[in-house]
Each structure stands twice: as structure tokens, then as C-alpha cells.
Design a protein that fits this description.
By secondary structure, the protein is mainly α. 72% of the residues lie in helices and 0% in strands. The chain is built from 2 helices and no strands. The chain has helices at residues 3-26, 32-61. Helix 1 packs antiparallel against helix 2 (32-61). The longest helix has 30 residues, at 32-61.
Length: 75
């Protein structure tokens, strides 16, 4: 599998996470506990989507000369 193919896979997963975020945000929350749980779940899903999207960009642009990689994922 090439990095370009891997990037497509990551983009697909980011779309799935975006859809899941939309579904969770539409769920009703009646109690304070439910609202807090929903907010925490949305926070986690957003972080996952951001990370997957960032890795997709890194894979897409890995071989481009002059591309400065995301410092968050630098070793």
C-alpha cells in the first residue's frame, strides 16, 4: 500500500467520523449527565477526526519537497 492509498483511507475514516459527530450531536440529552456525556463524546470524536485528517495530509504530502510536516507528529 502506498502513502497516497493510505491517505485516501484516512480521508474516508475522517468522513465516517464527521458523520458520527453529526449523529451524536443530534441525539437528545434530557439530563445533565446525558449532556455532559454527549459533550465528552463529541470532544473525543472531534479530536479523532482532527488527528485522522492531519495524518491524511502528512501521507499525501510526505514526498513533496519543502513540505513542513505537522510539528505535532514530528519525532
Amino acid at each position: 500500500m502506498t502513502l497516497a492509498q493510505l491517505a485516501v483511507s484516512y480521508r474516508d475514516q475522517a468522513d465516517i467520523l464527521r458523520h458520527r459527530i453529526q449523529l451524536v450531536s443530534e441525539l437528545p440529552a434530557r439530563t445533565q449527565e446525558e449532556r455532559l456525556a454527549k459533550a465528552e463524546r463529541l470532544r473525543i470524536l472531534e479530536a479523532m477526526r482532527r488527528d485522522v485528517r492531519d495524518v491524511a495530509v502528512i501521507c499525501e504530502r510526505y514526498y513533496e519537497r519543502g513540505y513542513r510536516k505537522n510539528e505535532r507528529y514530528a519525532i
